Amino acid sequence: MQRTDKVRLKSLGKEHGHVICYPVYREDEFSCRLKELEKLRIDAIEFVGKRMIDHLPVLGKGCVGIVVVAYIKDEKVALKIRRTDASRLTMEHEAQMLKKANAINVGPRLMMVTKNFLIMEYIEGTLFPEWIQAPNRKYFRSDLIRILKSILEQAWRLDRAKLDHGELSHAPKHIIIKLNNEPCLLDFETASESRNVSNVTSLCQYLFIGSSFAKILRRKLGGIKKTDLIKALKLYKMSLNRESFENVLKKCGIL
Ligand SMILES: Nc1ncnc2c1ncn2[C@@H]1O[C@H](COP(=O)(O)OP(=O)(O)OP(=O)(O)O)[C@@H](O)[C@H]1O
Ligand SMILES: [Mg+2]
What we know:
- 40% of the residues lie in helices and 19% in strands.
- It has 9 helices and 12 strands.
- It has helices at 14-20, 27-39, 92-103, 128-133, 141-160, 199-209, 212-221, 226-239, 242-251, and strands at 6-8, 44-46, 51-53, 56-58, 60-61, 65-72, 75-82, 110-113, 117-121, 125-127, 175-178, 183-185.
- A hairpin with a 4-residue loop joins strand 11 (175-178) and strand 12.
- Helix 6 packs across helix 7 (212-221), helix 6 (199-209) packs antiparallel against helix 8 and helix 8 runs antiparallel to helix 9.
- The longest helix is centred in the middle third of the chain and has 20 residues, at 141-160.
- 33% of the residues are buried.
């Protein structure tokens, strides 16, 4: 019989409970959460991904949530599970932030939320650092420029909407490149509407100025002068207007 990592809801046992109730498993909590998943019409959970919980692979493991692949009928979705030790009492905050982002065409589409779970569109793709370093990937310079422009345009829309993502200055796990080369920003858990926005500046910091990934990108693009870009970002930060944003794009060599 072919081995499958897809487990139907009714077949989930204590070993899977350690993922659903991470890091502290309790039988009563597990059975409450299973009922919640049933109400959400989740049919199965698939244990795949690069992070591990005990011996089970998952897509992501953060401070607030664990992300796994799940299915509603045949539709593949991303299921974010509230950790039992999370500083948040519900998933409502992330849902609200993601909803605001979705309104300006940013982020995976929010589908449903309950106290302990958030269901969103599953984004098939590759995280940006892996995408760029995949040895057999064939892409043109124009593809890379289009991806970078789209990422920064999304950040610009977030800035305009006064929604600060909060984790874009170090974003190796927060930009996924879809199969059609369209980038998608992930994880609105730490997003805020009350902080000063710094989506464009943080992303430029990560993509072009101060990370090991920035070094790779600068080498691939060529011609980026860090000091000029930093000056342009300072001006942008003061005005947050389109003209100064486009000046940033020019200094990144993508306009
Ligand atoms: N909608 C999605 N589609 C596909 N993969 C996703 C999706 N959301 C998250 N992932 C994967 O899971 C990883 C972790 O996601 P995310 O940062 O949202 O959660 P987390 O780090 O587990 O939790 P948190 O940061 O909220 O505590 C991502 O880097 C990505 O690989
Ligand atoms: Mg995260």
